[in-house]
Specification:
With 166 residues, the protein is an all-alpha fold. The chain has 5 helices and no strands. The model has no long low-confidence stretch (mean pLDDT 95).
C-alpha cells in the first residue's frame, strides 16, 4: 500500500478509513532509511521506552487489540500484562525494525479485513470496562492513536539521526 492523499470529499466510511490508512502508511514513511541501531535508541529522557521500533511494536499491538479483540470479539493474546503494562514497547528477542514494520503492515491488513463489512453505526463485539463501544469510536481513536505516535516518531527520528519531514 502507498500513502495516498485522502480526498477532500467522500462518504464517511471512505474518509475515516482513508485517514487511518494514511496515518498507518506514515509510520512506514517516518521509519524509512532508519539505521537498525538508531531504531532502538530512546532519546526522550521522560519516555525511556520510546524508540522508533518500540512505537511500531506498540502500534501493532493496539491494532490487534482494538480491531481483533474489541471490534471482532476474537480471543487474541495481548503483549502486555498487569506485571508489565509496557511490554509492547520493549524489544523482543531477535526483533528488528524491518520485522516490526512487516508485522505492523500484516496487522493493519488484518484490521482492514475485519472492518470490510462492519457497520460504522454498529457496536463492537466486546465491551470495554463493561460498557459498549461504538465501532466509529474505535476508528476515530485509532486515527488519533496513530497520528499521535507519528508525532512521537517525528521527534525520535530527528533526535536520533537528524531526519525531519512529513
Amino acid at each position: 500500500m502507498s500513502r495516498a492523499d485522502v480526498p477532500f470529499a467522500g462518504d464517511e466510511r471512505s474518509m475515516v478509513l482513508g485517514w487511518l490508512d494514511w496515518h498507518r502508511e506514515t509510520v512506514h514513511v517516518k521509519c524509512a532509511g532508519l539505521a537498525e541501531q538508531d531504531a532502538w535508541r530512546t532519546p526522550l529522557p521522560a519516555s525511556p521506552l520510546t524508540s522508533a521500533a518500540g512505537l511500531v511494536s506498540h502500534l501493532t499491538a493496539v491494532e490487534s487489540y482494538w480491531f481483533e479483540r474489541v471490534v471482532a470479539g476474537l480471543d487474541v493474546p495481548v503483549p502486555w500484562s498487569a506485571g508489565d503494562p509496557d511490554a509492547d514497547w520493549r524489544r523482543a528477542p531477535g526483533a528488528t525494525l524491518a520485522g516490526n514494520l512487516d508485522r505492523y503492515r500484516r496487522q493493519c491488513d488484518v484490521s482492514r479485513a475485519l472492518m470490510r463489512d462492519v457497520d460504522l453505526d454498529g457496536t463492537a463485539a466486546a465491551p470495554r470496562h463493561g460498557a459498549p463501544v461504538a465501532v466509529r469510536w474505535v476508528l476515530l481513536h485509532m486515527i488519533e492513536e496513530t497520528a499521535r505516535h507519528n508525532g512521537h516518531l517525528d521527534a525520535v527520528r530527528e533526535l536520533v539521526d537528524g531526519v525531519v519531514g512529513e
